[in-house]
């Protein structure tokens, strides 16, 4: 049987990485084999692209279009070499971010055309899509506070509050338009409460 493809989405600091091992543990309790990945990244090539994308630099500012293409270069490498083979082997894949991040960050955040992003997605991924998207919804103010507690910020974390407001609004609009696929959880709750909500959603899916 084919594995399930679950992706985690939301703004910075929403708690996706913190919940990832808990989701893995829950699926394994149910007897599933699971693989945890992140985007951009997850293969040696894609991890190098991740460093390029996250590093702040003064000498050669990455343009929004270059950023979009790098995201998709990393994604296609991960999907073709890791995600599709794992799913075909019956392994569940949980990925910290996937293509909805591009819609929210490069589309709403960087203001690139959503038509362009949809066309690129179709070209690169065809109909490949997650079985479930968990949207960790959090106010950008709270997300930024959590990030600042961590210390230095990367290229994305240095964006303005207005940028993250657009990203959040876009996520919520997509969730409202696709309620079967995208399940929103309140990421301002404690980690324990969030874990309970996520288990409930995944249980219904199983
Ligand atoms: N990107 C990515 C795009 O622009 N387009 C794309 O297509 C893709 C795929 C990736 C960057 O790339 C961008 C978006 C990103 O900026 P990243 O470091 O992977 O960079 O970024 P994030 O996925 O946002 O990782 P973060 O670590 O910033 O956010 P998380 O994973 O949501 O949050 P987490 O779990 O690390 O928690 C952050 C802090 O909050 C605390 C944690 O202890 C931690 O200190 N925390 C909580 N505190 C209180 N209550 C809770 N419930 C908490 N949960 C966690």
What do these coordinates show?
This protein has one domain: P-loop containing nucleotide triphosphate hydrolases (Rossmann fold, 3-Layer(aba) Sandwich). It contains eight helices and five strands; from the N terminus they run E-H-E-H-H-E-H-H-E-H-H-E-H. The protein has a five-stranded parallel β-sheet, sandwiched between helices. The longest helix is centred in the middle third of the chain and has 25 residues. The protein is globular. The mean pLDDT is 97. The structure holds P1-(5'-adenosyl)P5-(5'-thymidyl)pentaphosphate. P1-(5'-adenosyl)P5-(5'-thymidyl)pentaphosphate binds next to helix 1, helix 4, helix 6 and helix 8. The site of P1-(5'-adenosyl)P5-(5'-thymidyl)pentaphosphate has 27 residues, from helix 1, helix 4, helix 6 and helix 8.
N→C terminal distance: 13 Å
What is the chain-wise order of helices and strands?
A: EHEHHEHHEHHEH
The order of strands across the largest sheet is 2-3-1-4-5
Largest sheet: 5 strands, parallel
**Average predicted confidence as pLDDT:** 97
**Strand portion:** 5-15%
CATH architecture tag: 3-Layer(aba) Sandwich
Bound molecules: P1-(5'-adenosyl)P5-(5'-thymidyl)pentaphosphate
Name of the CATH superfamily: P-loop containing nucleotide triphosphate hydrolases
Total strands: 5
CATH hierarchy class name = Alpha Beta
What is Rg?
A: 16 Å
Question: How many domains, as an integer?
Answer: 1
CATH topology call? Rossmann fold
Low-confidence stretches: none
Structural class: alpha/beta
Inertia-based shape: globular
Helical content class:
55-70%
How many helices? The count is 8
